[in-house]
Design brief:
- The complex is a heterodimer.
- Chain A is mainly beta.
- Chain A contains no helices and 11 strands.
- The termini of chain A are far apart.
- In chain B, strands 2, 4, 5, 6, 9, 10 and 11 form a 7-stranded mixed sheet that branches. A 4-stranded antiparallel sheet of chain B has the order 1-3-8-7, with no helix packed on it.
- Chain B has strands at residues 4-7, 10-13, 18-25, 31-37, 44-50, 53-57, 64-70, 73-79, 87-94, 104-105, 109-113.
- In chain B, 0% of the residues lie in helices and 56% in strands.
- The chains are: A mainly beta, B mainly beta.
- The A-B interface holds A 4, 8, 30-31, 33, 35, 40-45, 48, 50, 87, 89, 91, 95-102 and B 4, 40-43, 45, 48, 56, 90, 97-100, 102-108, 110.
């Protein structure tokens, strides 16, 4: 079956770095997406990886290893506004997104 | 950014009521999606429309009925719902299905079924 695993909750300190991991198993693979969702708001697109390696976008970076079925989202210089849920989703051979349950990130001062 | 809008934002209904959720996208996209989001669970894809044609219906009960009159509008008609249907219903759009396009989401409708 198809499956996405990511931690349920993580806590980090303002100004620090945090890495949110995601492992996936899908029928075929057409890329890995990360979304951010603040409570009561829409999920917003953060990044897309389809090739192995690291993609950097400001304070956020996303990494993909296709051979390991593994991705991570790296957040640097954490700010209080980064407190949110982070959703990992893999696109299968039918171009459907298979979603993880999300990682709730709590930032402490 | 208000590329995808949803109304109402909150809805409380009894099990015998009939109501409709509305979604509108202003991004010029051709694919639209309905998702159900329950607490601590992955997003569940309910329906997909591509160029106004329904392409996916992921075993959704018939008490949920989608309608897509054009590429910009999507409705979800609700009738005789159950309390377990209480959830956040998210609408999304993308350029089209069948390619690795990013999906853009609306803010959702928080539905409570009494």
């Amino acid at each position: 079956g198809q499956n996405i695993d990511q931690p349920t909750e993580m806590t980090a300190t303002e100004g620090a770095i945090v890495q949110i991991n995601c492992t996936y198993q899908t029928s075929g693979f057409n890329g890995l997406f990360w979304y951010q969702q603040h409570a009561g708001e829409a999920p917003t697109f953060l990044s897309y990886n389809v090739l192995d390696g690291l993609e950097e976008k400001g304070r956020f970076s996303s990494f993909l290893s296709r051979s390991k079925g593994y991705s991570y989202l790296l957040l640097k210089e954490l700010q209080m506004k980064d407190s949110a849920s982070y959703l990992c989703a893999a696109m299968d051979s039918n171009y459907q997104l298979i979603w993880g349950a999300g990682t709730k990130l709590i930032i402490k001062p | 950014e208000t590329g995808v809008t949803q109304t109402p934002r909150h809805l409380v209904m009894g099990m015998t009521n009939k109501k409709s959720l509305k979604c509108e996208q202003h991004l010029g996209h051709n694919a639209m999606y309905w998702y159900k989001q329950s607490a601590k669970k992955p997003l569940e894809l309910m329906f997909v429309y591509n160029f106004k044609e329904q392409t996916e219906n992921n075993s959704v009960p018939s008490r949920f009925s989608p309608e897509c009159p054009n590429s910009s509008h999507l409705f979800l008609h609700l009738h005789t719902l159950q309390p377990e249907d209480s959830a956040l219903y998210l609408c999304a759009s993308s350029q089209e299905m069948g390619t690795a396009n990013t999906q853009y989401f609306g803010p959702g409708t928080r539905l409570t079924v009494l």
